[in-house]
Amino acid sequence: MASKEKFFTDRVIWLTGASSGIGRALAIALSKFSCTLYISARNETNLELTRQACADPERVFVVAGDLTDKTVNHTICARIHAHHGRLDMAILNAGTCEYVDVNNFDSDVFSTLMDSNFMSMVYAIEASLPLLKKSRRAQLIGMSSTAAYLGIPRSEAYGATKAAIRNMLRALHVNLKPHGVHVGVICPGFVATELTARNDFAMPALISAERAAEDIILGMSKQQHEIHFPKRFSTVLKIISILPDKLQFSLLAKTLEN
User: Fold this and answer.
1) Cβ pair 70, 123 in contact under 8 A
2) Which is nearest to 144 in space by CA: 43, 70, 227?
3) Could you report the per-residue pLDDT of 14-47, keeping only the tens digit for each?
4) Which domains are seen in the chain, by residue range?
5) How many CA atoms lie within 13 A of 187 on its CB side?
6) What count of Cα atoms within 13 Å lies in the side-chain half-sphere of residue 116?
């Protein structure tokens, strides 16, 4: 605990998607480390509930807005710069999930998820990167998913956005290292949130949002590039992803039976 506390103490952190789920759990967990938090999402009321649940609400600032709007991201980062003069970490967690029905294939699902999951992160990176490059201990962390490892049926749109995020952050990890910015990607399995509560299928190795937050914080404190969990689930998917196509597709087809 001491090493994690030292790692996050006095850092200025921007956390998106903090109104519920993993984002809220992360905000609450991080607030115990004497850092300054700026929390963002669309729902200002829920962000305020997150702030009030934090260990030191006076060090948590609500900056609500629609993160699919490029201008909103730049406005938030300008406010952070005006108030604190620096930004040490950006944890970009905002996003949502919808599934594809091949009997009613709808391109709107793809465009909605690309905006909410991928482009919102691109805008946040564009806005935060100039500040992060000035920090002596910068971290840029983005939320992907274990769905990025495989073409999972029904996750054609969601998985595509998460694969795009993972690919982008892997490239940025190499590209930004000379600039002193550590880039990481989070690939969780199933986490119990309001979003996953809507799922109509079995979710193996389901963990709590609080457990997810613990794993993320531990991975960040170790400056891991890819933080994937729970290992008993994510490791299996990684193994399946390197199997021959015929075997891989046969295993994935079984998900449709469930």
Assistant:
1) yes
2) 227
3) 999 999 999 999 999 999 999 999 999 999 999 9
4) 2-257 (3.40.50.720)
5) 28
6) 15
